[in-house]
Amino acid sequence: MTPTIRQLREQVRSGARSVTEIVKDALDRIGALDSALHAFNTVVPEQALARAAALDANRSVWPQAPLLGVPIAIKDNLCTRGVTTTASSRMLETYVPPYDATVVARLESAGAVIVGKTNCDEFAMGSSNETSAFGPVRNPWAVDRIPGGTSGGSAAAVAARFTPMAIGSDTGGSIRQPAAMCGVVGLKPTYGRVSRYGLIAHASSLDQVGPLARTVDDAAIALSVIAGADSADATSSSEGVPDYAAGLTGDIRGIRIGVPSSILERGVDGDVLRAFRSALDTLVTRGATLVDIELPHAKHAIGIYYLISTAEASSNLARYDGVRYGFRAPGTMDEELRAMYARTRGNGFGLEVKRRIMLGTYALSAGYYDAYYLKAQQVRTLIVRDYDQAFGRVELVAMPTSPTAAFKIGERVADPLQMYLADVFTVSANLAGLPAISVPCGFTVDRLPIGLQLTGRRFDEMTLLRAAEAYERDAPWHREEPLGMG
Amino acid sequence: MLAFRMPVQFSAAQVQAIAALAQLELSPNEIELFARQLGEFLEYANDVLAIDTTGVEPTAYVMTRQDSDRRDEVRPSLDQREVLAGAPDPALDAGFFKVPRVIG
Asked: Has this prediction a pTM greater than 0.90?
């Protein structure tokens, strides 16, 4: 099996391999295979090798660095100083940020080596990675299928064994859903757990940054590096950051897991449901107890998620106006200012982004604000209460991550509503600000990966990770590798 | 609950009015497409409108534990030249962004 973060850093610490060798391997693999997948928008071989050489030259300075010599990939909606950051949009095709996102700075301080920026849906809006202005990412398990979205490039990069870990962002499932569809682990931390400074904002009350990795242990190591308060992000929490990996004891005896059976009755693929039920059996065998719970408002989550997230997006994306960064429509200098704005935005944004700006603008507009936006925020409160009530009786809630495995590229692009329904099990964790993880839990008959989603109490990533890792011990689906990628 | 789904329909003029608020220039095809798709989504979301939320406070975001307010101190900021360099039409030496004429 390709080495994990834990194994790689041990190789570097013991002197068995140099950082340069490890980074070269990663770059070679990307060079050989990524033309078939398009997981990366940008690869930075020179920068990565220079940094590897610097780490090799000063290895004794870094003995305890938790990510020493580990090649990683960063979603292209997180700012990297001096490296193009596009959010997979024409609007930012040439944008080179003058600063690093806090997450990026923390990863580098921990000894990681960034090898490139991963493809994603445009401005992280989509469920399949097909809205990228630079073309879709392909699923390493079946290249005619989507990898999930919006962190599809990050999921594909980990699944294809390019890097043991990649950073994604999750507004309504964008880490967990592609993780499930690519057969890797994806963790969306609690709202406020990880700084969003330098994350290109989509929907600020929902966005959160997190890791995708092959094992739960690696995701735990990464979370301990990136979590914690940041004076540059007022929503980041001062809640203490434990050593998550040290808490993975495998012991989940007495843990109560809630299963909202009624919302699983319709629209879930048969193979997904079978894998999900079998995963619950495994958790029970390890000592967990299942509790039937109700989330009465969960069925409204998609409706309110798209009202709230598009409203916030319409406001966040107002800054792309052809003045301060990125693209300006050519030949508009002699036009009226507003015409320059409108043409720049009309030409610079793709169809899905425009569709969402339109929906969000409508939901916020005079006369409709109370009916749509305020109403959605009130129902959001009811969803938060549903979970609070459930977490009075259980420590975790289990659901499939996605109702289906990866669908074919092009299959749903003509029907946005159908596309939005792919997020049915993931959006509530964002609306309620809860941590949630997707772990591989099997395959469909066509050998497409399926994910198990566990959701935890606010800031209790520890229990979430412990249960996911305990499951992984008895159900090592993460050891399977996509054909032709081994 | 509503016994039926209210059809939501948008005219081209309504779509154009929303686009004007959003400062978006749309093609005739996009206007036609969005008129249909906005209607379809809002029809789907009609179920939400039917939920009784009398007396329910809205949630804007889920509060997290935060440090108290920080001191209002001057701290280093990004380099002006570097920031301007990302603009489509910067005046680097003068230190401003260039935009189409807005006055006379």
From this structure: yes
